[in-house]
Amino acid sequence: MRYVPVFIILFGLSTGLARAVQFDHGALARQVIEQHIRPGYAQLLTAAKGLEVDIGTYCRAPPGGKPTSVKKAFGSAVLAWSRIEHLRFGPIQKKSRHARMVFWPDRKGLGRKQVALALRKRDVSVTARETLQGKSVALQGFGALEYILYAKGSNKLSQLGPARTHRCAFMKAIAANIVHISKEVLGQWSGTGGYAATFLQPGPNNLAYLEPKEVTLEIAKSYLVGLERVRDIRIAGPLGLQRKSTRRKTAAFERSGLSTIAIAANLEGILHLFEKGGLMDRIELHESGMGKAIQNDLKLSLKQLKSIRLPMKAAVEDSGAEDKLMAIGFPLKTVREDAALVLAKAAGLALGFNALDGD
Prior knowledge:
The chain is built from 14 helices and 2 strands. With about 350 residues, it is mainly α. It folds into 2 domains: about 10-30 and about 210-350; about 35-195, CATH 1.20.1420.20. Strands 1-2 form a two-stranded antiparallel ribbon.
């Protein structure tokens, strides 16, 4: 079985055609912010702060102990991020924040090489948030922290000496950076100002959104492209089923063993956007039964993903796990296309894009 990405080419209905139910773009925007975006970034900030505290506690303790609590906190923060990773608009895209959180895919291993070099040279500039944030994005986020915790040489964290001191300072700077980014983004979505105002008040003076349906389009793309990335990059890549290459790609968070769990968290976040963010109710309102059918397929796909107990590298070598991954492809394609069809009709959207071209 081979994945064949289907690119959605749909055109919105003419404004002259009558619709049984008026689509309330403003209500959808408010619901998405209140029920999905703000809670998601708040959970990320909480997890990031917990990670920062655990790193500080571990590094203040005498050498010799394993960074077990740090790795647990790292996993919690990675999953909190994965659940909102599909939000690729607004403040998270400003100042390269998204790439600074996670630099992936790293096709040529540039990030790995940069982190390894910084560790080998004990680069002082990566040991404070203020200087780290001006460095390469590959040095600033979860990928760099994973390398310090899990790659060759990670045992130096338990050994007394300058290597431990530098690694601890590097980890502290990364954690502080993740907290800082999370706080900045959540701040932009909180209250009545910031990007929340931009999102809720489209109009001629709004540089991001001229019409209310452009906000709805942004929300729809988060769902549609999020699913496309899970299916055609996160899963198809390690399976060697991408359209441009049959070579198996390394999954994100493979070193830490969080690769498959992180993909499940990606899908869990998209399901949360669909249910709590209001897409399900709007689709159900305009085509009875469709919203619930999509929800059911998303839940079954998520259950299938969570049943795979192996990290991606091992899962693709295990026939049972690989079969489960392959089987997820069709329902993820279906729930994307079905939602796109109804949203295009109900909300008057023009969805015509090859979202992953070049990825």
